[in-house]
TrEMBL record:
Enzyme class: transferase
Name of this protein: Thymidine phosphorylase
Keyword entries, A-Z: Glycosyltransferase, Transferase
InterPro entries linked: Glycosyl_Trfase_fam3 (IPR000312), Glycosyl_Trfase_fam3_N_dom (IPR017459), Glycosyl_Trfase_fam3_N_dom_sf (IPR036320), Nuc_phospho_transferase (IPR035902), PYNP-like_C_sf (IPR036566), PYNP_C (IPR013102), Pyrmidine_PPas_bac/euk (IPR018090), Pyrmidine_PPase_CS (IPR017872)
Residue ranges constituting the Pyrimidine nucleoside phosphorylase C-terminal domain according to the UniProt record: 344-418
Organism: Cryobacterium breve
Length: 437
């Protein structure tokens, strides 16, 4: 990035790092300058790494977090759907194992006359990315121009596509730095990162699915609650009607963890079936997204059972070049793990199963790596289910059988068959709390 040699800089990065290191507060002009100077390359990665670690250790107050969010938002373009003639409402999940909810949710909400401009990303590490999942559908295209996106929202009311590099570019740079400096899990940095992108996307309303539990970014519900409250306040301050659901990520969502298998499971939900937890969360988030734009008197579940959500899905998949009837990719090899005894499945930890699917090829270790769309894990039982010795518990799928050993290592000790009556370790209800007006 070019820097102007003659420019007189307003601040010195070292002074700001000292201030945050010593638990001081950064002013609005200091934060604006820091993000601008980092985006244009004047402040280097080594200085920003020190700053993010100081923020990680010492935190930021609400005013600083808001300034950071606005500075990142102002580093790029801000989209507007004002001319669309329909309210816009979106959802963002902080990421979890088997979290395919965006797929059935987008068409379901669009059925009721709201438009869903869902700008998504790819997965890194054990949490999958929505674009990776949809790219399992033959022909489906993630990259749309702003004009194509607008036209699709106008005609069908829903789009899921890649977020362009023009939205909050400061976040792209900062997130990559945080990823390699151990500074991802800081609430001020997560909140500003997510909200700068979502506000830039131009949605009028936003529902945040903030996960807690073993498979989530933030494990304890208290920290997830703080993140949710921080993000809801940031959204409201920026004029976006925002609420959050705190949801349980101790156990994988649904039965499918991967890409093609998650599309398959989403289509089952759109056909009026699918796993109970996926349906429950999809319906709750749809009701919340619609309520934020004033659409309350509707029977959301009926659109799953009467085919309207499925028709919408088929329309939007076709609009992006996908063939909703084409067979999804199937892995060359499978490995089935069976129950070693009769009993009740009392534990199934989300994180190890996410890591297992990743090691099978469903996720990527580096940004530039491809994913294997057919790789992943299909669960055959969920916590609380009675199982019999020899019954399949889960199936691993991969193109290369050499991947099975490392995936099996990841899930070792992550599931347990107990005796009837033993407590089931699922972390409690799926939807723990709502935060918002
Ligand atoms: N997702 C983001 O976009 N940013 C974060 O910091 C964490 C999750």
């Amino acid at each position: 990035m070019s820097t102007n040699q003659n420019r007189i800089e307003e601040f010195d990065a070292v002074d700001l790092i000292h201030a945050k290191r010593d638990r001081g507060e950064l002013s609005t002009p200091q934060i604006d300058w820091l993000i601008d100077a980092y985006t244009r390359g004047y402040v280097g990665d080594e200085q920003m790494a020190a700053m993010t670690m100081a923020i990680f250790l010492n935190g930021m107050n609400r005013r600083e977090i808001k300034d950071l969010t606005m500075a990142m938002l102002n580093s790029g373009e801000r989209m507007s759907f004002a001319g669309l003639g329909k309210p816009t409402t979106d959802k963002h999940s902080t990421g979890g194992v088997g979290d395919k909810i965006t797929l059935p949710l987008m068409p379901l909400v669009a059925v009721f006359g709201a438009a869903v401009p869902q700008l998504s990303g790819r997965g890194l590490g054990h949490t999958g990315g929505t674009l990776d999942k949809l790219e399992a559908i033959p022909g489906w295209r993630a990259h749309l121009t702003n004009e194509e996106m607008f036209a699709q929202l106008q005609e069908f009311g829903g789009v899921i596509c890649a977020a362009g590099g023009g939205l909050a570019p400061a976040d792209g740079k900062l997130y990559a730095l945080r990823d390699i400096t151990g500074t991802v899990e800081a609430i001020p940095l997560i909140a500003s990162s997510i909200m700068s992108k979502k506000i830039a996307e131009g949605t009028g309303a936003l529902v945040l699915d903030v996960k807690f539990g073993s498979g989530a970014f933030l494990k304890d519900i208290e920290r997830s609650r703080e993140l949710a409250r921080t993000m809801v306040a940031l959204g409201e301050d920026a004029g976006v009607a925002t609420s959050a659901l705190l949801t349980n990520m101790n156990v994988p969502l649904g039965f499918a963890i991967g890409n093609a298998n998650e599309v398959r499971e989403s289509v089952e939900v759109l056909a009026g079936g699918g796993p109970k937890d996926v349906v429950e969360l999809t319906v709750a988030l749809a009701q919340e997204m619609l309520a934020l734009v004033g659409i309350t008197d509707v029977d959301v579940e009926s659109a799953l059972t009467d085919g309207r959500a499925m028709d919408k899905w088929r329309d939007v998949i076709r609009a992006q070049g996908g063939d909703p009837d084409a067979p999804l990719p199937v892995a060359r090899e499978t490995h089935v793990v069976t129950a070693e005894r009769d009993g009740v499945l009392v534990e199934q930890q989300a994180l190890p199963f996410g890591i297992g699917a990743w090691r099978l090829g469903a996720g990527r270790a580096r940004k530039q790596d491809p994913v294997q769309h057919a790789a992943g894990i299909d669960l055959h039982a969920k916590p609380g289910d009675t199982v019999r010795a020899g019954q399949p518990l889960f199936t691993l799928s991969a193109d290369e059988p050499e991947r099975f050993a490392r995936a099996l290592e990841a899930v070792e000790g992550a599931y347990r068959i107990g005796d009837p009556g033993e407590p089931v370790l699922d972390g409690g209800p799926l939807i723990a709390e709502r935060i918002g007006r």
